[in-house]
Amino acid sequence: MDRRNFVIGSAAVAAFAAVRARAADDYPNRAITMISPFPPGGVSDTITRPLDAALEKVFKQPVVLENKTGAAGAVGAQYVAAAKPDGYTLLTHIVSISGFAAVDRLFGRTPKFTNDSFVPIARIVADPIVMIVNKDLPYRSLKELVDDAKAHPNKLIYSSSGLYGASHIPTALFAKAAGNLQMRHLPTNGGGPAVTAVLGGNVNFFMSPTSIALSHIRAGKVRPLAVSSAQRIKSLPDVPTFRESGYDLEYYFWVGIFAPKGTPEPIIKILREGIRQAAHSREFLDTLANLGQDLAYMDQPEFAAFWAVDAKRQEDAINAIGRVQG
Amino acid sequence: MRLRADHVAGAFFVAFGLLVLAISGDLPFGDLSLPGSGFMPKILAVLTALFGAVLMMRAGETRPFAALHWNDAKHAALVVAITAAAILLLERLGFATTAVLMIFALLTIIERRRLAPAAAYSLGVVIITYVTFVYVLKTPLEAGPFGF
Amino acid sequence: MDTTLHSLYLGFSVALQPANAWYAFLGCLVGTLVGVLPGIGPLAGISILLPVTFGLNATQAIIMLAGIYYGSQYGGSTTSILMRIPGEASSVMTCVDGYAMAQRGRAGAALCIAAVGSWIGGTFGVLVLTMVAPPLATIAIKFGPPEYTALLVLGLIFLAYMSSTSLIRTLLMACLGLLLGMIGIDNMTGDFRYSFNLAELGDGIGIVPVAVGLFGLGEILSTPSVSAVKDVIAPRLRELLPTRQEWREAALPIGRGTALGFIIGIIPGSAHVISSFLSYALEKRVSRHPERFGKGAVAGVAGPETANNAASTGAFVPLLALGIPTSPITAVLIGALMIHGVQVGPTLVNEHPDVFWGFVASMYVGNVMLLALNLPLVGLFVTVLRIPYAYLYPMIIMFCIVGVYEVNNSIVDVWIMLIMGVLGYALRKFDFDPAPLVLGLVISPILEQSLRQSLIMSNGNYLIFVSRPIALGLLAVSATLLALAGLSFVLKQRDWRARLAAAEAGEAER
Lengths: 326, 148, 510
Known about the structure:
The structure holds three protein chains of three kinds. By secondary structure, chain B is mainly α. Helices cover 66% and strands 3% of the residues of chain B.
C-alpha cells in the first residue's frame, strides 16, 4: 500500500469513527422503527402502540410501529435479527420469542436466529395466565379438573393460541406439574379464537392471558380456576395461584423490547433511559390500567436475568411436548 | 394427431401434481381419523394430476396449440423485467425513488414516450401518492438511503 | 321494543352531537381514502390512526374508528372496478363483473350499484344488530370446527358455479388454489410445508398478493397498449348513473346479498372473507342468465358488494354482544375501546349505554354519510379512465406493488404477486379463469384446520359432522345441491354450461 492510499485510508477510518461516535451522541436524530411481529389487535400491538406514542414525546422523534407478521412471530424477529444494529430498528416481542430456536432444533432445522441475536432492553408488562373453563362445566376447583383428567386420560380438550405458542407452553408445563396428564390439544389461530372455543363449549379449558379473559370472567361466562403468578392478582383476588393449589407453575405472558445484537452500548443506554421514562409516563400508565394490565417494568440487567431463566423453561416445555403425531 | 392447447395445459397440471407429490414425500399422511400434515396436500396433488389427465383426454375439441397468439409476449416480458427490477430495488432505494424510476422506464422503454413528459408524469404520480400515504394517512412507505 | 327505540333515541342524541357527527364524517372520509388506495386496508388504517384518538373520549374514538372500518368497505370496490386491482380478498369477485362492466363503459353504473348495495347491506346489518344482537351472538358462538367444515364443504360445491369455463377447468383451478393454500407451517403439527426455507412463507401465501397478481398485473400483461389505444371507455356524465333496467337487475341480488352476508358475518372466525364469493356463486346459481356472468352482469357486482358490507356489519354482533373479536379488524377495535377504558363484552350495554347506542346510531348516520360521500365521488373516480392507457398502466403497476407490500411489509409478497401475474397471463392464454383459484386459496387453510380440529374434538369419529344440528343442516344443503346436479346430468338436460361448452366448441372450429 503506498503512502497516498494509506493517508486516504486512515482519513476514511477516522471519518467513519467520527460518524459512529456522533451517531451515539445525537441519537436518535431520525425516526425509530419498532417492528411488531404480530398483526394489530394482538397483545404486543395494543401495548406497544401507546408506548411508542409516549416514547415519541421523550425522544422528540417519530417512533413508527411496523407490523411484519408471519410464522407466529418468527418473521418479524428474523427481520430485526438481520437489521443494522444502529438503534433505529427495534423489536417488540412476547414470551414466545425464546421458543423458535428450540422448535427449529426439534424439527431438525437450523435456527435462523437464537436468543443471542437480540439485546434485551426492557420488559414492559408480564400478564399472568389464568385457566378458564366454560361456566356450564362442573369443575369448581383446579383439583376437580385434575382428578377428572387423571381418571379419564385423553378425555379433556384444551384450546391454545397455537402450537408451541404462548398458551400451549404453560398448559404443557401444567400437565407435567400435575403428573403428566394426558389431554387433547386443539390449536387455533390466536387468543381470540381460543377463548371463543371455551365460550362455545368446543373445548374444556384454555390457559389465557388474564387481560384477554377478564371481561368474560366478569360477565360470568367462564370460570377461572387458577392464575400462574407468584401471588394472587388484584383483578381476581378470589382465584388461587397454581402454587397454592399444589402445582408448581409460574408463568407470565410478557412483552419486552429488544434491539439487534451489536447495537452500540451508548445507544442502548439512551434507549433504556427513554423507554423507562415512557413506560412510567402518566398517559401510558393510564392506558395500561384501562387494558387491565399492570406495569411490570424491568430494566436491562434484571430483564436479561429473567429472560435467561424464562427461555430455559420454554425450551424444556417444547422438548417435553415433542413433535406432534399426525 | 395435432397438438392442442389443452394437451399442453393438461400435461402441465399432470406434471405439477406429480412434482408436488414428489416434494411432499416426508410429510406424514396420517389416517382418516387423524389426518396428518400430508393428508390434504397429497390428495389434492393426485386430484390435480387426475384432472390434468382428463383435460388432456378431452383436448380433441379445443384450439390447436399452434393457433395461440403470442404477439403480446414481448410486451409482457418487458413489463415483467422492469417490474422485477423495481422489486429488487424497492428495499434498497426506497419506495419513492424506485417508483419514479419504474414508471419512467415503463413509459420510455416500452411505450417510447418522450423523456420530458415521461419524467414529469412519473414524478407527479409518485409525489402525490407519497404525500397521500405518508402525510395524510401517516402510513410509512419503505424509505431509501436519502430518507424518503 | 320500546326500550330499544328509547335506547336508539339516546344513541341518536349522542351520534348527532356536532362533535361526534364530525368525527363520524372524518372517519368515513379517511375510510373511503383507505379503501380506495390499495395497500392500506382497514386494519392498517385503523391501527395507524389509533394513537390519534388517544386525545378523544371513548365514544368519539369508536365512532371515528368504526367509520374508517366501514368506510373502507365502501371504497374497496373502486380499484376493483376501475383497475381490476382487488384491494382485499372480499373484492376479488367485484373484479370479474365490475371490471367487465367498466370495459363496456358502465363503470359509473357499477360504482353506483356497489355504493348503494353497500349502503343497504350496511344499514340492514345495523338494523338487525340493534334488534337481536345478544341472542344472535349466542347462536353464532355455537359455530365450532364441525360447523365450519360443513360450511366450507358447501363453499366447495358452490365453486362449480364460480366460473363460466367448463367444469374440469374450474376444478383444476380450484385444486391449484387449494394446493397453494397448503403452503406454510401446518398449524396442527408444526411441519413446514413447501416453504423452501423462507420464513415469510411460514403463514402461507396471502390472498392479496395472489389476487392482485392474477387479476391486476395479469390483466396488464395480456393487454399491450397497442391493442388498448382505441378503447375509450370514459363515459359521459349522464351515463354515470345506472339505468332503470340495471337497477331492476340489482334489486334482488342486493336483497339476497344482505341476508347472506349478515349471516356469514356473525360467525366468529375468518368466514366473512367467503361471503362475497358465496354471494356471487348464489347469484349465478339462481340467475336466469348465468352465461352473462363474467361479461359484466349487474348481479355479479351487486350481490358480492352488498354481502361484503353486510358481513362487515354482522361482525359487530359477536364484538359488541360478547366481546369476541371475529376478525383482526374487530380485534383492533376492541383494543381501541379498552385503551379508552371501555370493557367490551356482555356488560357493555349496561355499563356504557352512551358508547354502545351512540356507536350503533353513528353507524346509521355514517352509512348515510358514506352514500352521500361516495356517489359524487363516482364521477371523480371515473375520470381516471380518461388517462391514456399507456400512462394508466404504469400507475396501476405501482399501486399493485404498494398495495401488496404494505399489507405485511414483505418483499416476498411482492415477488409472489409478480409470479402470480405471469401465471395469470398464462392461464388467460389457455382459457382458464383465476376466480376459483382464489376461492380455493381462501378456503383450504380454514377447511383443513377445521376438519382436523373437529376430528380432535371427536377423537376421530366422523359422526360429529351429523350429530350437531347446524353442521347437519349445512351438509344437507350440500347434498341436495349435488343431488340436483346429478339428476339433471342423468336426465341429460343441457344446462347453461353445456350450451356454453357447445358455443365454445363452435367458436373453436371457426
